[in-house]
Specification:
With 422 residues, this protein is mainly alpha-helical. It has one domain. It is 77% helix and 0% strand. α6 runs antiparallel to α11, α7 packs parallel to α20 and α19 runs antiparallel to α22. The longest helix is centred in the middle third of the chain and has 31 residues.
Length: 422
């Protein structure tokens, strides 16, 4: 058996044993560097430095900071009130509010975990007062957070763009419609379940109430405008938009809403740095691993194998979606993107799929993995926030998983969703 094959088997065993993903990828990068004998060990540190010395990658910590400032500055509560004014009149209004608010929050933070934690803390107590089933409430919060990496700004789109050389700005724009479609689909599921089980209290719809709530949410809308309008108009790059949005949210939280004291800002920055400290090292070691995979010609072998199986674009796209659903359930989106994107993008080009559209396919499909066991991150966050067991959250989130998979298939085979604004 080839030494490289033994390495991959060992890495798979480590993952199944629950070893930290950073450790697994790091071990793989070192062992493959030794096996290929194409680079000195010094190359590992050089490659790690070069992989992080990229201007677009600066957007990642900036959007994380922005999300934490929103959560600390009282803007999240404004988003919830605005969302409730729009859909609160329907059966299951709080469940729908949760999903809509998650979409709006995602348009500022770019993080799924932050979306689940922030929205969950605000809405779960209210859902409990209205006698929603606790498992359904936690599952809805977990599912709503899925769009955190699809609706721009998206940390995952930044990683895909850095890895494949695709414009991050184009990816942000391409993610708008697919993100909204997924939000709409989950709202339908929440409405049907709530109607069947008679969940929640309906509040009368008021156009004046919507306008008032929109005015109250002006600071959140301002953050979205800075990010999306700034990027779409070409005024800002994604990185610059992240910086301006972070400063804006800091000003709002400290000076306008006064929900955040200056003495508490360092604590917020420390919280953001912890999240970045988890993601950034994975980016560095994954780049080393990807470099060695290229030397071993594994991407070429994968392309040849899949094209040898079938040249039908429909069959290949379905195979890719199935692969992404499987790996997304056992490994987080960031390492999956960093490892698989360089391997799968050539296949997409071979069958005529635009790299931007393919980026949306990858990110939206991997997003489903956040609510699928055994390692769905959103499930753990929702369980922690709600106090509901992991098994219960996993069971109640099932209908959302099914409809999101259907959305992924629709996104893959309807390119106009991604390319409409490009």
């Amino acid at each position: 058996m080839e030494p490289s094959t033994l390495v991959f088997i060992a890495l798979a065993v480590f993952l199944l044993l629950g070893v930290e993903i950073l450790t697994v990828i790091g071990i793989g990068a070192v062992l493959l560097t030794l096996i290929t004998d194409q680079f000195p060990l010094l190359n590992i540190s050089l490659t790690m430095f070069d992989s992080l010395n990229l201007f677009p990658l600066l957007a990642l910590p900036l959007f994380v900071v922005t999300g934490d400032l929103i959560a600390s500055g009282g803007i999240a509560a404004q988003i919830m009130r605005f969302s409730q004014s729009i859909v609160g009149w329907m059966r299951g209004g709080l469940a729908l509010t949760t999903i809509v608010a998650s979409g709006i929050f995602a348009a500022i933070s770019g993080s799924n975990a932050a979306t689940v934690a922030t929205v969950g803390k605000v809405v779960l107590p209210e859902m409990s007062k209205q006698s929603y089933d606790r498992g359904f409430s936690a599952g809805t919060v977990a599912a709503g957070g899925v769009v955190g990496i699809i609706i721009p700004p998206s940390v995952s789109f930044v990683l895909y763009g850095v890895t494949t050389g695709v414009s991050v700005t184009d990816l942000f724009i391409a993610g708008i419609i697919p993100g909204l479609v997924m939000v709409g689909a989950m709202c339908v599921v929440a409405y049907l379940i709530s109607r069947k089980r008679n969940y929640g209290e309906r509040t009368p719809f008021s156009a004046r109430g919507v306008v008032t709530a929109a005015i109250d949410t002006r600071y959140a809308i301002g953050a979205i405008a800075i990010i999306l309008v700034g990027i779409y108009s070409g005024i800002f790059t994604p990185t610059e938009a992240g910086a301006v949005a972070a400063v804006y949210c800091l000003f709002v939280a400290v000076v306008i809403t006064r929900k955040l004291k200056l003495r508490d800002v360092p604590a917020v920055l420390v919280s953001s740095s912890r999240i970045c400290g988890l993601v950034i090292p994975i980016v560095a070691v994954a780049m080393v691993l990807s470099q060695n995979l290229t030397v071993l010609k594994i991407p070429d072998a994968l392309v040849s194998a899949m094209l040898g199986w079938s040249t039908d674009p429909v069959v290949l796209l379905i195979m890719i979606i199935l692969l992404l659903l499987i790996v997304g359930s056992v490994m987080e989106a960031a390492p999956n993107i960093l490892i698989l994107a360089p391997m799968l993008t050539p296949i997409a080009r071979e069958i005529g799929v635009d790299p931007v559209h393919f980026g949306v396919i990858i990110v939206s499909t991997l997003a489903v993995g956040f609510i699928t066991p055994p390692l769905g991150l959103n499930l753990f966050v929702a369980s922690a926030v709600s106090g509901v067991s992991f098994a219960t959250v996993t069971r109640t989130v099932g209908p959302y998983v099914l409809v999101l998979i259907l959305c992924c298939v629709a996104i893959a085979f309807m390119p106009w969703m991604s390319m409409a604004f490009l």
